[in-house]
Amino acid sequence: MQDLKSYIREVPDFPKPGILFYDISTLLADPLGLRMAVDRFDWLFAGREIDKVIGIESRGFMFAPTVAYTLHAGFVPVRKPGKLPAATVTQEYDLEYGSDKVEMHADAIRPGERVLIVDDLIATGGTAAAAAELVRGVGGELVGFGFIVELTLLAGRDRLGEANVEALIQY
Length: 171
Ligand code: AMP
What we know:
This protein has a single domain, classed as Rossmann fold (3-Layer(aba) Sandwich), CATH 3.40.50. It contains four helices and nine strands. The protein has helices spanning 25-29, 31-45, 64-70, 126-137; strands at residues 9-12, 20-23, 52-56, 74-78, 88-94, 99-105, 114-122, 141-150, 164-170. The strands form three sheets. The protein has a five-stranded parallel beta sheet, sandwiched between helices. The chain has a two-stranded antiparallel ribbon with strand order 1-2. Strands 5-6 form a two-stranded antiparallel ribbon. It starts with 8 loop residues before the first strand and ends with a strand. The structure holds adenosine monophosphate (AMP). Adenosine monophosphate is lined by residues 19-22, 56, 59, 119-127, 156.
């Protein structure tokens, strides 16, 4: 059996010069890679009584619904501004230069529901922290975070507080 890391494609200078992009599409395209990744999330979070799994646009969308299905949970998208049709809650977060926003339907999570947030990769942790604020803002109970890839040098998990942070692959 191959190591999960060997399924990740590393693409230099994408989307701009100097960035090394960790591409999960090669992991998802491989039947065993996909199964191993989803099974590990299932193993890590089964029994935690997750009601909703949040996927963050856009690469979180590629596997969060599958993780939700295996955990017998529902799936909730957190999207870039202006994409969701009904009433939303919004959270702004800082980027290296400037800021960005994420949105979620205001009624997607009911007060007290237990929530897992998943995304392809954690770098600085800003995106995941913003999604967590959306969950807290509507009264959800944040159980944890699941990432396929963690860039440990950036210490993003330090921004995520007390919640359980799991990453399948670390660089
Ligand atoms: P951050 O908010 O800094 O933790 O950035 C995480 C978000 O940016 C995730 O949604 C990733 O998809 C994306 N991202 C940041 N750095 C990379 C990278 N080197 N390779 C692939 N995606 C990245």
